[in-house]
């Protein structure tokens, strides 16, 4: 059985052909439509149901009427290409309340071109951060055999889950904001050639907390957000490994110590900008601002002393004299 891609960019003409040849039917995560204007109420209901449940993919440009014995090229009929095509699709669901966030409506970046010069449009609907949504005063859910009204208990439970997810998103924004602060502070220290302080700052990264939000909570967010979270986690783990190496410099002397510190600095010069880049990607995908960590600089003099412990010791010796 063909696997339905989670990422809309993985859809290709070949996968569409396989889908049709296999006789794949609509289910809890897939809807097939011949035209944008074909039963637009059903389309809006499906978008509403997908957003309220586990998300799903809608393919435009396939004649799914099994009662008609059609050739493959006739069944994959496509749509007339137009600059307004995706806008027309969005217009069909504008009466869903509350409105579905645009981040939960993901089109394939380019429509799939067919041999007949027409196109296939792929729309991925992800679980909404604002659910439950209603269409014509009915809250809908998606099942394997289509859309069904939610009962009162399901609506209440969905509201509670949505509120919980909103709180988790706030915590994620705080954690990501703290990471950005630590990355930017470490970058500044590294530019000042303060390797010891840089690794001290990186050792304060709450790796276990980061893993919790980026692994256990990733299902709450769009696919692109999950990818960014995984890349950030990879950077954090690599930086943690590099920071631990710095502790070994305490038992080294001379050129060997300097060589290891240079190696550590080079690794951090590569990883820190990558971490900042992925945090910006996450911010864009979530369509929210990361909560910044306030930099007071109150304790900078103290950290300067930590960076130069010998100077501090000399000061104490002078005072005793």
UniProtKB/TrEMBL annotation:
Matches recorded under InterPro entries: Schlafen_AlbA_2_dom, Schlafen_AlbA_2_dom_sf
Highest rank taxon of the organism: Archaea
Pfam families in the record: SLFN_AlbA_2
Compositionally biased spans, kind Polar residues: 309-321
Positions of the UniProt region annotated as Disordered: 302-321
Annotated ranges, domain Schlafen AlbA-2: 26-151
PANTHER family recorded: GLPR-RELATED TRANSCRIPTIONAL REPRESSOR (PTHR30595), SCHLAFEN ALBA-2 DOMAIN-CONTAINING PROTEIN (PTHR30595:SF6)
Record protein name field: Schlafen AlbA-2 domain-containing protein
Organism of origin: Nitrosopumilus zosterae
């Amino acid at each position: 059985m063909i696997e339905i891609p989670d990422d809309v960019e993985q859809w290709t003409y070949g996968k569409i052909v396989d889908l049709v040849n296999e006789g794949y039917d609509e289910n809890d995560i897939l809807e097939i439509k011949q035209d944008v204007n074909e039963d637009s109420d059903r389309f809006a209901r499906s978008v509403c149901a997908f957003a309220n449940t586990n998300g799903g993919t809608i393919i435009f440009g396939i004649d799914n009427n099994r009662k008609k014995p059609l050739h493959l090229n006739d069944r994959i009929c496509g749509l007339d290409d137009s600059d307004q095509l995706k806008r027309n699709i969005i217009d069909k669901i504008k009466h869903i309340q509350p409105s579905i966030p645009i981040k939960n409506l993901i089109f394939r970046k380019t429509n799939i071109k067919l041999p007949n010069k027409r196109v296939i449009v792929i729309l991925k609907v992800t679980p909404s951060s604002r659910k439950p949504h209603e269409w014509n005063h009915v809250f809908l859910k998606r099942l394997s055999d289509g859309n069904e009204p939610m009962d009162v208990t399901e609506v209440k439970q969905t509201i509670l889950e949505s509120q919980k997810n909103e709180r988790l998103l706030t915590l994620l924004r705080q954690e990501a904001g703290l990471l950005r602060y630590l990355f930017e502070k470490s970058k500044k220290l590294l530019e000042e050639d303060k390797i010891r302080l840089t690794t001290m700052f990186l050792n304060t990264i709450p790796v276990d907390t980061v893993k919790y939000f980026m692994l256990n909570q990733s299902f709450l967010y769009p696919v692109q957000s999950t990818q960014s979270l995984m890349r950030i986690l990879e950077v954090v783990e690599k930086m943690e490994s590099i920071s631990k190496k710095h502790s070994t410099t305490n038992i080294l002397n001379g050129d060997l110590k300097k060589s290891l510190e240079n190696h550590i600095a080079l690794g951090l010069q590569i990883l820190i900008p990558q971490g900042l880049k992925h945090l910006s990607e996450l911010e864009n995908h979530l369509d929210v601002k990361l909560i910044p960590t306030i930099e007071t600089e109150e304790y900078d003099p103290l950290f300067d002393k930590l960076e130069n412990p010998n100077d501090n010791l000399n000061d104490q010796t002078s005072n005793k004299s």
